[in-house]
TrEMBL record:
CDD domains in the record: FN3 (cd00063)
Entry keywords, A to Z: Carboxypeptidase, Hydrolase, Membrane, Protease, Transmembrane, Transmembrane helix
UniProt entry tagged with the keyword DNA damage: no
Residue ranges of the TM segments: 12-34
Protein name: Carboxypeptidase-like regulatory domain-containing protein
Keyword Transmembrane helix carried by entry: yes
Gene Ontology MF term list: carboxypeptidase activity
Length: 289
């Protein structure tokens, strides 16, 4: 008798369990069947979902310029000069104001690099060096830092590294480079194909403070760059005061099937370079059919 009662209880419990499962399943899938929703069985990625944004978000640019510049011929392997009692002191300026947090080091004496230094809130960087004679040949930026601290900027083409030798002595800091960063000249997008006789009009945005612009044209064998050849010597580079140019007026030997890229350098009223376009030879601006 007890055995029959026990089996009866177990049967009831099993039946109740089945009913509960069916009810839960109906509640879960009913929202998709009757509510018009599509079920998803993928795991939650943990990403936050924001509300719809009706404006145009700003482009995340990062630093747009070169990571280093240096003059002369250099050995394949450079030495790093250790810290010492001497000091080279310079300044970092971005858009005319001191810029903190820029990490850089200098190329020195045609064969060496300095220690890394970081600019402070006044834009000043200090590099400890052994006492001795030095010549600054260029600089290198830490790109992992530059993308955050110099977003949307390039290294000014007007930087002066053609300087005389100097001595760094204890308690007598030597003057280092003033490193300036500016906004680039923005070219208007093209990536067009032109016929044999069609005008090739290239344009860019007006740059604040610019009096004139010089245009260099690069000839490439592939759309991604490859071997590139500048078509104008510096003396023959086309110069205009407007913000567009018809390259047919200056380049008479453009070749069918090749790709071309143009770069723009802006000059002020005194003939000084104040900015230039960026993204050199990473893509093309036009192709001749």
């Amino acid at each position: 008798m007890n055995g029959l009662l026990e089996k009866f209880v177990q049967g009831v419990m099993f039946g109740v369990g089945v009913v509960v499962v069916l009810v839960l399943a109906f509640l879960f899938f009913g929202q998709f069947i009757f509510g018009g929703l599509t079920p998803s069985f993928t795991e939650d990625s943990g990403a936050e979902h924001s509300q719809e944004y009706l404006g145009v978000p700003a482009i995340e640019q990062g630093y747009l310029g070169v990571h280093s510049i240096r003059r002369g011929h250099w050995p394949n392997k450079l030495v790093v000069i250790g810290a010492g009692p001497g000091e080279i002191v310079g300044k970092v300026v971005a858009e005319g104001e001191p810029r903190a947090g820029v990490r850089l080091r200098l190329y020195l004496n045609g064969a060496a690099q300095s220690q890394w230094a970081v600019s402070d809130e006044l834009g000043v960087y200090r590099i400890p060096v052994p006492e001795g004679e030095y010549r600054i040949d260029g600089l290198e930026l830490d790109m992992s830092v530059a993308h955050a601290t110099l977003s949307g900027l390039i290294l000014s083409p007007n930087i002066d590294i053609d300087r005389d030798n100097f001595y760094a002595r204890k308690a007598e800091p030597a003057r280092g480079l003033q490193v300036s960063f500016v906004k680039p000249v923005i070219k208007n997008a093209t990536a067009k194909r032109y016929g044999a006789e069609e005008p090739i009009v290239l344009s860019w945005r007006a740059y604040e403070g610019a009096k004139s612009y010089r245009i260099q044209l690069w000839e490439m064998s592939s759309p991604g760059g490859g071997h590139a050849k500048g078509l104008f010597s510096w003396r023959d580079t086309p110069e205009v005061e407007t913000t567009e140019i018809n390259m047919r007026d200056y380049a008479t030997d453009l070749k069918s099937g090749l790709y071309y890229y143009f770069s723009v350098t802006a000059f002020d009223g005194q003939g000084r370079e104040i900015s230039e376009s960026t993204g050199a030879l990473q893509s093309y601006d036009f192709k001749l059919n």
